[in-house]
Design goal:
By secondary structure, the protein is an alpha+beta fold. 36% of the residues lie in helices and 22% in strands. Strands 3, 7, 8, 9, 10, 11, 12, 13 and 14 form a 9-stranded mixed β-sheet that branches. It has a 5-stranded mixed β-sheet with strand order 16-15-17-18-19, sandwiched between helices. α2 (40-59) packs antiparallel against α5 and α5 runs parallel beside α11. It is elongated, with a radius of gyration of 30 Å. The two termini are 47 Å apart. Bound molecules: 6-bromopyridin-3-amine.
């Protein structure tokens, strides 16, 4: 790569060529297009968000797992015209194998479940926070990677699984100060659409592709999609009837009239809303028959978190996908899950003034300062190493001044890392097996012997 950057001025000389000096093309200091660097301040926010996601997951009894960021491309080859497949970050590796950076986690989870089939204690309730990728033409300048919290329940066909996931999402929102006035969760059931397609004579093998197109109706007018629907054999009054059935301004009763009150789809939907009170999430849920989500493999209840101000893209989304294993040649296992990206929720927190303040983050409890620079530099630096080790072994986050620094710099550094105590080690202190501990909030100080654990106790008290 370095060679690739060099534009060697090659001079033809008698008997051959030689590099006559190399003009280094400037290294591009930006991260690759569509990706992000996480400097410490960025990392503090990311860790804060991931910790909130982890706490919500563990509160609901989910176990953490992960899978490779790189998967066989075969895992994502689906024919329903999904954007996530059209933007696959895929390539041939050096062995000529077709691989892809995962655009989502669910297919990896399905592969893992299939690999361990019969050996897993069902139901499984697993969560992960994978980095997921897409390759999108940068003309739209959107990101090519994001971190997406995933929770999935496998082995439960009952609506109770949906309730666990919906309430886990709500608990997360509440844990970061977001309420049901700020955010709602639209809930629908793809089974409704399947029944409407049956009534309109659309063969079942068109269901997934029709759902992907219906999902686009949220952003694209129906007339712009008529050709795509026609390609699926759905057109004219048939299409108009289907489009009317997914209009957002309908109640569950309205769609029950359309598909019949004895419809399983209606029953499952009513079950969700009937159970919402028990889970304390009734204020969050909104029936919206226009929500189908954009993934081909959803088969049942689907849901989508949204900001009620209507300023942001969907915050999270998920649904039931009972037949996914069939796509991988396995016997189906009922499953339901959601994905929750790290971008929109941070925008929401910003608009609500709910981003955490890390100004008081304690990077270090104690700073150890060897007064180096003179003939005794090595002596005081060794003493600093011993003292820092003792403080660290006692559990105190301890920073050491690693080179000869002036006092003003040291005190400014100690303040920047929000340390509570500065332990100063001069040559005379070393000789007396002592150090000077300074409490930084009020400059009180004590000469402390290194015998016993008094230093650790004092440092812990002053940290
Ligand atoms: N699937 C996916 C992957 C990466 C980003 Br950014 N958005 C969506």
């Amino acid at each position: 790569a370095a060679a690739g950057r060099r534009s060697a001025a090659v001079v033809q000389t008698a008997g051959g060529t030689k590099e006559s000096g190399v003009k280094e093309a400037p290294l591009d200091l930006n991260p690759p297009r569509g990706t992000r660097d996480f400097f410490p301040d960025d990392m503090r926010l990311r860790n804060w968000l991931f910790d909130k996601w982890r706490r919500a997951s563990e509160l609901y009894g989910f176990e953490e797992f992960d899978a490779p960021v790189l998967e066989s491309e075969d895992l994502y080859i689906r024919k329903a015209g999904e954007e996530v497949v059209g933007q696959l970050y895929c390539f041939a590796d050096k062995g000529g194998r077709r691989v892809a950076l995962r655009p989502e986690l669910t297919p990896s989870l399905a592969r893992m479940v299939l690999a361990k089939r019969g050996q897993l204690n069902m139901p499984i309730k697993w969560f992960a926070i994978p980095q997921c990728w897409r390759y999108e033409r940068m003309t739209r300048g959107r990101r090519r990677e994001h971190y997406q919290w995933n929770c999935d329940i496998w082995g439960v066909g009952e609506v109770t699984a949906e309730m666990e996931l919906l309430s886990c999402i709500v608990r997360f929102f509440e844990s970061v100060g977001i309420g049901s006035d700020d955010v709602g969760i639209k809930v629908n059931n793809r089974e409704l659409l399947r029944e409407v397609l049956h009534k309109n004579g659309v063969p079942d093998d068109r269901f997934a592709a029709v759902c992907v197109l219906i999902d686009k109706l949220e952003k694209v007018p129906l007339d712009h999609l008529r050709d795509d629907f026609r390609a699926l054999g759905v057109e004219g009054s048939q299409l108009d009837s289907i489009a009317a059935s997914v209009r957002a301004d309908q109640t569950v009763d309205d769609v029950a009239q359309l598909v019949g009150e004895d419809s399983q789809a209606v029953k499952h939907l009513r079950d969700v809303f009937d159970m919402a009170d028990a889970y304390g999430i009734a204020d969050w849920l909104v029936f919206d028959p226009s929500v189908v989500r954009g993934l081909a493999y959803y088969t049942g209840v689907v849901f989508e978190g949204f900001d009620r101000a209507g300023e942001l893209r969907a915050i999270c989304g998920g649904g039931r996908y009972d037949t996914l294993l069939e796509m991988f040649g396995g016997e189906p296992i009922p499953a339901v899950g959601f994905g929750f990206g790290d971008a929109v929720v941070v925008e929401l927190l910003k608009t609500k003034g709910l981003l955490p303040d890390f100004a008081d983050t304690s990077v270090a409890d104690a700073v150890v300062w060897p007064l180096a620079g003179g003939d005794e530099t090595s002596t005081v630096q060794q003493a600093a190493g011993r003292v820092a080790t003792r403080l660290r072994q006692s559990g105190l986050k301890t920073d050491v001044i690693l080179e000869n620094k002036k006092s003003k710099w040291v005190f400014k550094h100690a303040a920047r890392v929000n340390a509570g105590v500065l332990v100063v080690i001069g040559a005379d202190e070393v000789a007396g097996n002592e150090v000077t501990a300074k409490r930084l909030c009020d400059k009180e100080q004590q000469r402390v012997t290194l015998d016993g654990t008094h230093l650790e106790d004092l440092a812990a008290e002053w940290a």
